[in-house]
Structures
1.
Amino acid sequence: MADGLGARLETPLFEQLTLIGVGLIGSSLARVASRKGLARRIVAYDNDPDVRAKVERLALADVVSPSPEKAVQGADLVILCAPVGAMGEIAKTIAPHLAPGTIVSDVGSVKEAIIEAVAPALPGHVHFVPAHPVAGTEYSGPAAGFATLFLNRWCILTPTPDIDPEIVARVESFWSAAGANVEIMKATHHDLVLAITSHVPHLIAYNIVGTAADLETVTQSEVIKFSAGGFRDFTRIAASDPTMWRDIFLNNKSAVIEMLGRFTEDLIALQRMIRHEDGDGLFKLFTRTRAIRRNIIEQGQETAAPDFGRGVAKDTDEER
Ligand SMILES: NC(=O)c1ccc[n+]([C@@H]2O[C@H](COP(=O)([O-])OP(=O)(O)OC[C@H]3O[C@@H](n4cnc5c(N)ncnc54)[C@H](O)[C@@H]3O)[C@@H](O)[C@H]2O)c1
Ligand SMILES: O=C(O)C(=O)C[C@]1(C(=O)O)C=C[C@@H](O)C=C1
């Protein structure tokens, strides 16, 4: 098909995929699982009744379950797609209802804290394979998802050493069939890498938009009026979901603080270069950073998904 996802699988990889939390990521998974035939049956649960109604309306799942306990019954793959801070409680709730051999996974943006919260809550007869698709937009909710969100993007798996490699391979096959490139790494390493490539950049965006909005000499209307350039790109990132990002910063505290320390030192060095009119120093850094951007574009990593979400109103009821 023209969407780049390739043909449907002849045999589904799983009998029943249960998604807990059906916002941007959960609904994108539902869409791609349905489009590619990754599971024979898709069951969805969200703790927000309005989201459940929307998931029904958009026909994103075969069954929209009224409770997490019911939703996981019969599942051989359960993926937790709720905010990072909710994962531990969800694991406790579903634990007694998971059949032996079930694979439980997640999509949280932080890995070590999720492993600490989820793994001890699960019974010994299930397998937990933490995952993080490094793909998203600033939009939330079930209408904002799309089937190609994960296409040619990375999905990082962070299994603990006690997990059977064959189980990890099944989760890897799931994400590969959804279009992602899969990489396996330790949770602590994941959290450090994502702190600098995703979490600190979001914090910088939240901060610069907040600072500009607070300036007494620049009125709010001027901030909006003149935000056609660099500032506008920051406002896109700073529009990201407040619950999701609060939970990320609270659960990746030490890595973010470590990277923020380095960032602050480098920022002060730049401030010094400007004060001392060190044009060569500034020119050297800007040349190096331009090369990095060009490298990302050459490797085709800038954006693999269509431009959906960029400038499209949040939560429009589009059919899957
Ligand atoms: N948005 C991104 O760019 C992105 C990218 C990769 C990973 N993630 C991760 O994916 C997860 C979901 O993010 P999203 O962007 O889809 O958020 P979202 O806000 O669009 O969706 C989250 C959904 O979870 C539901 N929810 C909250 N608590 C719940 C609970 N206890 N039980 C059941 N449902 C519950 C909410 O009602 C909401 O519908 C987060 O952990 C986030 O860190 C997000
Ligand atoms: O593209 C965006 O809008 C995103 O913020 C996506 C992004 C990122 O920082 O790359 C955000 C958080 C996720 O954990 C993974 C992806």
Note: The longest strand covers residues 14-20.
2.
Amino acid sequence: MTKAAVFGNGSWGTAFAMVMADAGCEVSLWGRRPALADTINATRTNPDYLPGVELPRGITATADAAEAAAGADFAVLVVPSQTLRENLAAWAPALGPETVLVSLMKGIELGTAKRMSEVIGEVAGVPAERVAVLTGPNLAREIAARQPAAAVAACVDESVAQRLQAACMTPYFRPYTNTDVVGCELGGAVKNVIGLAVGIANGMGLGDNSKATLITRGLAETTRLGLAMGADPLTFSGLAGLGDLVATCSSPLSRNNTFGTNLGRGMTLQEAVAATKQTAEGVKSCESVLDLGRRHGVDMPITETVVSIVHDGKPPTVALKELMSRSAKPERR
Ligand SMILES: NC(=O)C1=CN([C@@H]2O[C@H](COP(=O)(O)OP(=O)(O)OC[C@H]3O[C@@H](n4cnc5c(N)ncnc54)[C@H](O)[C@@H]3O)[C@@H](O)[C@H]2O)C=CC1
Ligand SMILES: O=C(CO)COP(=O)(O)O
């Protein structure tokens, strides 16, 4: 039987543990608080992150990383992106030499502008063939309700992507394989920033033309960055690109979208942070995505606008006027 260790028992870690258990895996779900692990085992629910959802029998919760990692075929990493480096340094010694490390995170590291798979390779000292990414339009609450959705299992080694695909395929969860890890990770990280932008527009009372413009031009700047970094541009019209962007930008379940809406309605950054219970990756990653764009000489005007609103306190109305008064350009260049 395939064994998975899921490191992170928040919304997506718990929902994905359900998917793997439903796919027939034996799943160990790690979280840093022993009391929550005990509650999950005793009640078969995770009241802090997925209240009211019954967890399958195949999941066992623990706060002991070595216990979770023992014999794992897959170590699924799903904590906030900015905490990965420190956490993984503690978990790595417990992982076996054959364990495939799978990133479910959608952020870029602040300071280094590294993708999560790069941080994993560096900290755990594993080659790219042992690092995979699982991404796509997968809002945790909908997956936990077993609503049908597709995803992408990506690895530079296609046979590893296929093993991951088999380990999480269920009647309601349909992963496709891809070998474009760079494109898949960029799609997931940049869509959070565009989700913030669309949320801000929503909070300002703007309509669907404005939101469709942000989504489409957001995808254009994601693709520009991807091309500069050697990604396959077709990845961005797939589930890891357009698919995830549409889910995040249209759903009130999206934390990034909701965070943006709160800012657009006039909340300060501090007020919006206080109103957000779970991880909205784009809030931190908008700065590292902009950093990544600059390192590759790529113009990312929407990302720049989001950073100016979120971190420089620029009023959304002023930022919008500036965005709309940029010089005229061809649609493709
Ligand atoms: N929630 C969703 O629908 C989806 C989330 N993701 C990505 O999954 C990642 C995790 O997000 P969620 O599970 O939604 O977040 P969450 O906020 O629901 O849960 C985060 C988990 O990490 C733990 N955590 C926080 N700081 C920590 C630290 N310093 N050390 C160890 N553990 C820590 C929390 O206790 C919690 O268990 C993010 O990168 C997000 O972009 C990806 C797809 C869907
Ligand atoms: O990545 C997600 C859906 O695929 C979840 O989006 P949020 O992190 O904005 O909730």
Note: The pocket of NAI (ligand 1) is lined by residues 8-13, 31-32, 49, 78-81, 83, 87, 104-107, 138-140, 278-279, 281 (CB under 6 Å).
